[in-house]
Automatic annotation (TrEMBL):
Keyword hit for Transmembrane: no
Keywords noted in UniProt: Exonuclease, Hydrolase, Nuclease
Molecular-function annotations in GO: exonuclease activity
Name of this chain's protein: Exonuclease SbcCD subunit D
PANTHER family: COMPONENT OF ATP-DEPENDENT DSDNA EXONUCLEASE (PTHR30337), NUCLEASE SBCCD SUBUNIT D (PTHR30337:SF0)
Organism whose genome encodes this protein: Halorubrum yunnanense
InterPro entries according to UniProt: Calcineurin-like_PHP, DNA_Repair-Maintenance_Comp, Metallo-depent_PP-like
Keyword Hydrolase: yes
Location of the Calcineurin-like phosphoesterase domain: 85-245
Length: 331
């Protein structure tokens, strides 16, 4: 439980807080700006922590035990189980990427094996005990082997067997061999479909890759007077997408999907968009509209534009009508 929060420590520290663990042991938690820990800290609240770097100080002032954030640090606020739904959102896992010729890859990506990061992503979902995994497309790369297909299906099966379903859409690199593997289950394809969680509490709609067009009709306003939360997952380059500083995230994709006409009506009731395809993960929005947007980015460092890609998964927590998004880096 948190007892004191300091949100203005000396940089590059981001937050310092005093807490007690489940055994009543007093400790200090320090998060660093470079780790982008976005959870909202509140005195009296409880936060399970994974990862981090623990140090024990014998003669230091303050708590003897201190935990510092690192690249694998993950934290979330505990809310009543009956009043929340948690989704682990990811995209562009590109299993099979290792088969691409080295001269087509950036220097930092030549030794990447995306099977490993796919496994780490789903292991995170199992460890967190989320209600579902949502994959925003490009599960596979365009050249895959039977080994790749078997690896993905086995990881999805392991996750499903722990009570965590996996929902996915098709991306532009997902070929027919990969799609056949996915259709064998137990993952659930939601391209052109809407999945309802709980007592119509959350509505999750999916759109497969459409090369700049809607691959199927986009979702419509729910007939519940805004009582449910609506989330749309797609795999296209959304246009005109801007980051948190309102700077364009892309400028050159001729197959971008213009979302403005859709959002002219959906901006009032749509709560979140999650988009795969772009390989730079970011919190974002469509310029001129309020609906928040997650550009998932890939789960491995395969971006051709920057080595500072910060591969991540995204924890989406729905509590009542509130939607919280936490970026969880894979390191």
């Amino acid at each position: 439980m948190v007892h004191d929060v300091n949100t203005g420590p000396k940089p590059p520290r981001d937050v310092e807080l005093i807490a007690t663990d489940a055994d009543g042991v007093k400790l200090q938690v320090v998060t660093w700006k470079k780790h982008d820990v976005t959870v909202e800290w509140e005195v009296g609240a409880t936060y399970p922590i994974r990862g981090g770097r623990a140090k024990r100080y014998i003669d230091a002032s303050g708590p003897e035990l201190r935990i510092h954030s690192n690249a694998d640090f993950a934290v979330e606020r505990v809310t009543p189980e009956s009043d929340r739904l948690r989704l682990l959102v990811l995209g562009d896992t590109h299993v099979g990427y290792r088969h691409r010729p080295s001269n087509t890859k950036s220097p930092w990506a030549r030794e990447v094996d995306n099977r490993q990061t796919f496994s780490r992503s789903l292991a995170r979902a199992r460890d967190l005990g989320v209600d579902a995994v949502v994959h925003a497309g490009d599960v596979f790369d365009h050249e895959i082997t039977r080994e790749d297909r078997d690896h993905v299906r086995e990881e999805i099966r392991r996750t499903h067997d722990t009570g965590v379903p996996v929902y996915y859409i098709h991306g532009n690199h997902d070929n027919e061999a990969g799609n056949r593997t996915l259709r064998r289950g137990p993952g659930v394809h939601i391209g052109g479909e809407t999945v309802v969680f709980g007592d119509d509490v959350v509505r999750l709609s999916g759109l497969d890759y459409g090369a700049g067009e809607f691959s199927s009709p986009p979702p419509e306003r729910p007939g519940d007077n805004g009582e449910s939360v609506s989330i749309l997952v797609l795999h296209d380059t959304p246009y005109p997408v801007v980051d948190e500083n309102e700077s364009p995230i892309h400028r050159t994709d001729p197959n971008h999907l213009d979302l403005r006409e859709f959002l002219d009506s959906a901006d009032e009731w749509l709560d979140l968009i999650a988009s795969g395809d772009l390989h730079v993960g970011s919190r974002a929005s469509i310029a001129g509209y309020e609906t928040p947007l997650i550009v998932t980015g890939p789960t491995a460092g395969i971006s051709t534009s920057t080595q500072e890609n910060n591969p991540s998964t995204w924890l989406v927590t729905v509590s009542g009508r509130e939607v919280q998004v936490e970026r969880q880096r894979l390191g």
